[in-house]
Amino acid sequence: xxxxxxxxxxxxxxxxxxxxxxxxxxxxxxxxxxxxxxxxxxxxxxxxxxxxxxxxxxxxxxxxxxxxxxxxxxxxx
Length: 77
Fold this sequence. Notes:
Elements: H1 10-23, H2 27-74
């Protein structure tokens, strides 16, 4: 496992130490879990942005298809 030297503000380091202790884990495990959780959050945000962009790209075509179906629905049988 690669080694990372991390400088934290005193308050942040104290919180990490305190919460890790309450969870019964060491601070390194706590920080790794925090990074994992944040990575998953960022991944979800990036995926949501990709879905939004893809949706915007097909919006015009979807609107055209809907309008075409509306015209078909108005044709008397």
